Structure to design on (93 residues):
């Protein structure tokens, strides 16, 4: 199993950060077929062969994903895409 673990600081309000994460999640969900849902400040996502969470904290976003055998081959591509989309939403670090 491959793991993606990304932490990204942000300077937005919690509401704005959640909206930005929602835009990222919708884009990634469309590209890779993920279903997602919010529970408080945590967005859970899943599809066959992958699952994870995105926690929106006061000054940080934490993404943790576990990829099964077949999805593990796409780990680098998925991780780069998420990082790129977060940079677009939250600005470059």
């Amino acid at each position: 199993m491959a793991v993606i673990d990304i932490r990204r600081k942000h300077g937005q309000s919690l509401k704005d950060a959640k909206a930005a994460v929602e835009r990222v999640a919708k884009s990634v969900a469309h590209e890779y077929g993920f279903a997602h849902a919010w529970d408080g400040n945590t967005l859970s996502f899943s599809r066959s062969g992958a699952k994870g969470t995105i926690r929106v904290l006061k000054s940080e976003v934490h993404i943790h994903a576990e990829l099964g055998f077949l999805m593990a081959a796409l780990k680098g591509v998925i991780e780069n895409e998420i990082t790129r989309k977060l940079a677009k939403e939250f600005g470059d670090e």
